[in-house]
Amino acid sequence: MSPQVTAAIIAGSVGVLTVIATVVTQYLGRRATSRDTQKALEEQGKQLDRTLEEQGKQLDRTLEEQHTRTLNELYTQAVEQLGNDKAPVRLGGLYALERLAQDNPAHRQTIVNNICAYLRMPFSSTRPSGPEATATWEQERQVRVTAQRILGEHLRDERTEDKRSTEPPSPRFWNDIRLDLVGATLIDFDIRNGVTPDADFRGATFSDDAWFSGATFSGAAWFSGATFSDDAWFNDATFHDDAHFGATFSGTAWFGGATFSDDADFQEATFGGGA
């Protein structure tokens, strides 16, 4: 082979190798660029996720703060209404508190405490004389009956009527609510099938019949010093803790079917109409 041909072959081979090297270099460069781009995109995606997560948390905090402020404002307004000197305004306050408690389970006990405090305020169950005094008395009586109805309705677990029921409780049922009605004047009080962990009625005055039929007291039940002007119905009630009945029963006290898991104290109890 002549030197000229050999030189030509070598030159051609070098050219081909150069082209191949150029193609390979470009290919590898594009792969590296693609990897860098993909890595950059992944990092940007992660950063975006972190930003969105933090923004979501901040939005949740803002909404929670706004909800708390709104709730506090509504609660304050309702309590102020309950202290108003006009009965219709007080009724509005009660209904507002009921709505707040229904929509905000964490605040139910506080709201019930306010309702109980209202019922503990002095009130005579005896109708006064004179049209103006009678009208004022009737209005206040209506407010108190409404307060009692709210307690009775939301403490009532209808499932207690059927001990075998597997149905969930009604959304209207407020569970684990304590009652402090020490010294309260209660009119035709009715918590039939009610459920409460603690109930304190010491020194309370029950005007007209008092209904506790089918109620469940998971904690102590106190009626010491209470006065029942008419019949008192405790039939089929369940007492899981101590029950103190050192009260005055002017009417008949019904305890048929009641269950006492712990001590039932009737010392100093007086039964005018039998038991």
Question: What do you see in this structure?
Answer:
By secondary structure, the protein is of the alpha/beta class. The mean pLDDT is 88. Helix content is 49%, strand content 13%. It is elongated, with a radius of gyration of 38 Å. It has a domain at 83-271. Helix 1 packs antiparallel against helix 2 and helix 2 (87-103) runs antiparallel to helix 3. It has helices at 3-82, 87-103, 108-119, 131-155, and strands at residues 179-180, 185-187, 195-196, 199-200, 205-207, 210-211, 216-217, 221-222, 227-228, 232-233, 238-239, 243-244, 248-249, 253-254, 259-260, 264-265, 270-271. The chain starts with a helix and ends with a strand. The strands form 4 sheets. The chain has a 5-stranded parallel β-sheet. A 5-stranded parallel β-sheet has the order 2-5-9-13-17. Strands 3-7-11-15 form a 4-stranded parallel β-sheet, with no helix packed on it.
Topology:
Blueprint: H1 3-82, H2 87-103, H3 108-119, H4 131-155, E1 179-180, E2 185-187, E3 195-196, E4 199-200, E5 205-207, E6 210-211, E7 216-217, E8 221-222, E9 227-228, E10 232-233, E11 238-239, E12 243-244, E13 248-249, E14 253-254, E15 259-260, E16 264-265, E17 270-271
Parallel strand pairs: 1-4, 2-5, 3-7, 4-8, 5-9, 6-10, 7-11, 8-12, 9-13, 10-14, 11-15, 12-16, 13-17
Helix pairs in contact: 1-2, 2-3, 2-4, 3-4
Summarize the structure.
The chain is α/β, with parallel strands linked by helices. The chain contains four helices and 17 strands. It has a domain at 83-271.
